[in-house]
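#help-structures

NK: newbie question. if I give both the sequence and a SMILES, will the prediction place the ligand too? trying with zinc ion
OV: yes, paste both and it writes out the complex. here, I ran yours:
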Amino acid sequence: MNMKTLREYIKDAEEKKVAIGHFNISDSEGFKAVVESAKELGVPVIIGVSEGERDFIGVDEVRAMVDAERFKEYPVFINADHTYSVEKVKEAVDAGFDAVIIDGAKLSFEENVKLTKEAVMYAKSKNPEIIVEAELGFIGQSSKIIDAVPDGVSVETETKPEDAEKFINETGIDMFAPSVGNIHGMVKTGEPKLNIELIKAIHERVRIPLVLHGASGNSDEEVRAAIGAGISIVHINTEIRLAYKQGVEEGMKLDEVAPYKFMAEGVEEMKKVVTAKLKLFNKI
Ligand SMILES: [Zn+2]
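OV: that's the protein plus ligand as structure tokens.
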């Protein structure tokens, strides 16, 4: 596979009306599961690490794992998922990440613009090629199974196309994550439906790629429709975490002390989820 830049892969995805998969990991087992799945299908992939995940795996360590794949010319990219402070943005930018998300979705419009602008300015001054993503419209912050739709998330907090346009113009971001009925984490009582018409309206109004967060728990049909409406990257976290835990629980029942044997069960379960999602996103 000929290596292009992440920006080029995203452009390709937009043109082909497919989406690149973004999967969160916490450790090398997660990395192995995501990269092996992508390689088996021959598609580019983005590894996501949130602030908590970065603290656990190590910013430089995860960057080094990605570099090892890039050295072999395989398109694996690394994104600093949900970053809440400029300090943490700096850490990821300085470590050479391909992309970073500054998350001010919980703030007021003005405060969100201010924080995002600051992050964009730092990131671009260090690495003009870096992709900065930001969010407008709160969609919760969990990556767990939650009892109900989180407080502060409702139809009213869905992103209005005119606000999206204004936000993007004022901040200079490269990618945008709207609130379109998506929720972080998985809701026990059932996920709210994605607002496909709103995705379409935002996509028509703004000229930068759109990212769907919190897609764990949404049906294949909905995700397919969202990609058709203009989503270029889809984030999955909670479903992989669940699969990992269930796999490891099976691994623990084995009469084994070799970690590469009992942890392998967790990797296999994660691979099933990642492979199914990649097939869906890439129309394979
Ligand atoms: Zn997210």
